[in-house]
Design a protein that fits this description.
By secondary structure, the protein is of the alpha+beta class. It has one domain. Helix content is 21%, strand content 24%. Strands 1-2-3 form a three-stranded antiparallel beta sheet, with no helix packed on it. A hairpin with a 6-residue loop joins strand 1 and strand 2.
Length: 62
């Protein structure tokens, strides 16, 4: 119940990304967002994911 589906594949509706809502930043991905080619349409734009990760990294102190 604390996991939410963030992305599914259009072709077969398989869950591709999840988020755990009770932690400062936990995300599970079924692909490599860092492999996105700028302007490429064949892959999901990774910019929002990487921006969220970098923001959480800056804001989180251990």
């Amino acid at each position: 119940r604390d996991l939410s589906v963030e992305a599914t594949s259009e072709a077969d509706n398989i869950v591709e990304a999840i988020r755990y809502r009770k932690a400062p930043f936990v995300m599970g991905l079924q692909w490599h967002p860092e492999f996105h080619r700028a302007g490429g349409v064949e892959l999901l734009d990774c910019t929002p994911i990487l921006d969220s990760f970098l923001r959480a990294s800056r804001e989180t102190r251990f």
